[in-house]
Amino acid sequence: MSLTQTAIDTLVKNDRGGFTIPTAGLYPYQWNWDSAFIALGIATYDMDRAWAEITSLLDGQWPDGMIPSIIFRSDDPAYFPGPSRWGSTPGDIPSTGVSQPPVLATIVRQLTEDAPTRRAQVFDQIFAWHKWYHEARTVDGIVATVHPWETGRDNCPEWNIGLDQMNIAPDLAPYTRMDNKHVNPQYRPTQEQYDKYLTIVQFGDSIGWDQRRLTDEGPFLMADPNIHFVLLRADKDLLAMAQRLGKAAAVQDEIKGWIAKGEAATDYLWNDDLGAFTARDIRSGVFSSGFSNCSALCFYADAGTPEQRARVLDNLRRISGAVEFMLPSWDPDAADFEPQRYWCGPVWPQMNYMTALGLTEQGEPELGQQIRDDLCRAIEKSGFWECFNPLTGDGCVGANFSWTAAVWLSWQHETKLEGVA
Asked: Among candidates 62, 56, 47, 46, which has minimal Cα distance to 18?
């Protein structure tokens, strides 16, 4: 059986009737940015089903505009923390109380170039989500994050700066982790990290998930290059959609204001010592100390000065010489690099997708192609895993993974469209 057919079969197997789970067992619900990438893959063979993936995600939107990181349509005992731990959330469907990187506008724009009716159907909801980010999650002009889970990069060493300043809640309710029952615990976040993750959740529940209070008063507050650059790119794509749909000038002007704010805030994330865009603790101002796989998303967002981009490229070439498969999630020259521990080293398909796209669009096609090819080589070697060891290409964490299958299908489809064998 071809890898393309296996990819389709993977997505079909993970389909739960209108939404797709990342993989059985480990992740039994609908994840926010997973579904966006999954729609991109499903669209290569079934556009109606791809659109259902997007609209089902939007069904979980909160009244304030936030689209949560996870939508719980059941309470699966195989997963923790499920809906009971997150408490009462205000959406129509139980959910988490934090969001995820907003890739949806970019993918909707791509999928609806010839479908203005569908584009119009979801525009207002996506606009409301972006507005939420710019109002509920912005501190002094920079979009912030209140939880490592919100960034999509759960235990990346970048978050240790904020986590180290936190205390575990003395009254933290007892719990039993389930993730370690599905995969090797040595490749998952530590117990101390999990206690702090749950401390943030407990605080959010205690304030009724008031998002402005969670940002201003919560125990964790950092700026994330992933959310920053993904949102900046998505704002630009949202503006393009608004213009094509003929939205009111006030709407277009508001989006233009978000873009201007995002471009002005980009320097806040620039770590000149490293020559990289890195996470930064907002309360202390401290930068993280390594190049991550979102440091190069400046190209994806078409942001950063020529000098900054040149230094980012220098780092990418340095890292390319240290690994067999680009792009590791953490700097291989850093002391805390671990090639198989979740976000401490492995190659992540969705990050390679965005990075390769940005590099290609911004005049670095050879490096972009390398990042595509390296992921494809890892898939050809190991299959559709959640992420991959950058030194060996071995699969890590979850097998039969939806967004990996989706990225493969999207790239194979593009190759066919380009007439390349």
From this structure: 56
